[in-house]
Amino acid sequence: MVTAIDNPMGGTPHMTAQTFPDISPAPAPAPPLRRTEPYMRLQWTDSLTGAVGYLVVHTLRAGLATGGTRMRAGCSLREVEDLARGMADKTATFDLPVGGAKGGIDFDPKDPRAIGVLERFCEAMRPWLDTHWVTAEDLGVPQHLIDEVFEKLGLGQSYHAAISRAGDPAATLERVRNGLNAAVEGGFLLGDVIGGYGVAHACLAAAVWRGRAPAETTVAIQGIGTMGGAAAYYLHEAGMKVTVVADAAGALYCADGLDIPALLDLRDGFGEVDRTRLPEGVEQLPRAAVLSAEVDILVPAAISYAITPDNSYDIRARVIVEAANAATTPEAEAMLAARGVPVLPDFVANAGAVAWAWWLLLGEVDDNPENSFDRLRTTMHSKVAQLLAAWAEEGVTPREAGHRLADEPAPPAASGPVVIP
Predict the structure, then answer these.
(1) Confidence class of residue 5 from pLDDT cuts 50, 70 and 90?
(2) Is the CB of residue 414 less than 8 Å from the CB of residue 29?
(3) What's this model's pTM, rounded to 2 decimal places?
(4) Rounded to whole angstroms, how far apart are CA atoms 151 and 143?
């Protein structure tokens, strides 16, 4: 069953899975404006398991919104609302011609029934997935899995709502698949690592701002799944010392720097490292030790709300780079700012994946990884430099400075109708 929870545009709608508001694409959308309330909230209940799922569309531009679908036990409407707001900030900050949305399912992704829950959620959300909501992987839902569900539903691939607008949808789908599956160094696929590559360069830009060479910079990373693992890999490749990483089983520590490629080879499908095969010299610590590590940069790359007022005083890092969405609560961020610790917000630091996906959809990058890496590296360093300059020169937090970027009118090319080649 699908129900509309709220409609901030006025009144409370009486909506079922078969009735949706008229959201026909506008011929020339206005530049994005900050909304305090979402455009729409939907709640779904799975009749077989009782799992509850949510879709929150924070903003629509040209009838489109983009944002991943996550699955975790305890996922709430408030969490999905926060994530949808963050997606709206990402698309605006990176001048993408779409709005922001998010899907979330309150269910354990390790449960053998999880794939069925995901299939039924996507079927219930099909009117949106078919024409308005472009989704992708997120916590608990890898890209290959959501693409399998879309294939089963006859929607081809999770970018379907945008691909279907192309003049030649088959050619666009091929370009998207080629880009996602392009092989890169380390035995990875471009679509799996591009987000973490962007996070790594947010960290490198922060090191430049602090006047420290990569070899002199230490990093702790909470979570080494798709995003955190790729960030760890590219930071290691750049010469930074990743001294602590954490997964669900605990933290791993080496003062001289962990052998990140070796650890990544020991991960299972949920981003957890096999402790029975750890390299020599790796010390096992409690999971919370990653937050209190004595490092230059802390990268929360696991769950939302990982940094709270209760643990913020344990943090010894000089800079925090959010790889997870909504990793720091507003109260904790204010406490860190008072201590002189800047937080690079998720809607900049981890926006590489969504920005790249839309560059790929729009034909602005192709399946040559170097083209994608070059563009994302240049863009990320520029954005982070602006945020940290505002912090140093004006005392404005990086999040506030990021919101300034998001609120600036989009350039003319990005404010017209979305054209998918």
Answers:
(1) low
(2) no
(3) 0.88
(4) 12
